[in-house]
Structure prediction request, 353 residues.
Amino acid sequence: MGKQPAISIIIPAYKVEAWVERSVQSLFDQTFADFEVILVDDGGPDRTGELCDKLAAADERVRVIHQENEGAAGARNNAMKIARGDYLYFMDADDWCEPAMLADMYAMAEEHGLQLLVTGFFIDTYYGEDKFFREVRTAPQRVYVTQREFRENAHDLFDRQLLYAPWNKLYQRAYLQERGIEFPGTFWDDLPFNVDVVREVERVGCLDGRYYHFLRARAESENTRYRAGLYEKRCEEDQWLRDLFAGWDVDSPEVREFLGRRHGERLLGCVENVTCADCTLSGVEKRAAVRRIVEDPRTREALGDAEPRTTMMKVALAPLRAGNVTLTLWESRLISFVKRHSTNLFARLKANR
Prediction:
């Protein structure tokens, strides 16, 4: 089996034959070499599994799991069962990372004995073969001295989009194992996983480095599809965060404003989901769905607490705040049109919200 590695890198791989080699090559190019890569071939119909085996043959640090399709959560959980590293790092097979990422993350985690390390990252939204808009997410350079200090500042990290995804973090494996933390088998499993991680975490640090490139080219096209039950899912997510802060006994005007603004921004996506071209609802059903969102007491409370930071977002939320179903529908159709026909513009508007 060999020496226990410092970091286990877990990569679910499903229908990624065009990207997985570049992703793993960015790991081979790291200045830090003490890691293992666990590639999970999640039963796709293309050559992904074959390419995973090819990568394993090229470097003894790579192991491959072949399984029937279980989704990203099942793939990650299965890899966690055999991971041997002191820390876990989760990567997506269609993304890539900068060469200094693992070295910098490991050095800080070890220096401060961290259970969780969070970094900044890039979001690269492609609107052509070689054309993309790059959004930069930065993290504060900081180690939280106490658990309470982290909890009282966690809303800022959520607000910076730093606590949602798993791929800008280093997790202490022992911490996850001791608490039995796994990815839940649910749509959009990243947030509930990280909520479970931070609920009791004591030693957290942030590293002001941008290393990971999240490619939104495929993700954006996926997000143009209609998803039944999206509004209920967003309400569930909102409740997870409200329960988290309540359980921590952290309540302040800043936290309430963040939670309200976060939910309000996602409500725009819920309405746009109803008006997108792929939505199967009738016109009457669409109007009823939007009315239910607009008149929901949860919506009224969230928008009452929210203080949009830009003029664009103030204007975007105005129809919802006014409770005007017709204006909300018209605005949503415009958002759907921009999202479908100008990925570049939509990405820029979203980044500057």
Observations:
- The two ends are 49 Å apart (CA to CA).
- The chain has 15 helices and ten strands.
- The first helix runs from residue 20 to 28.
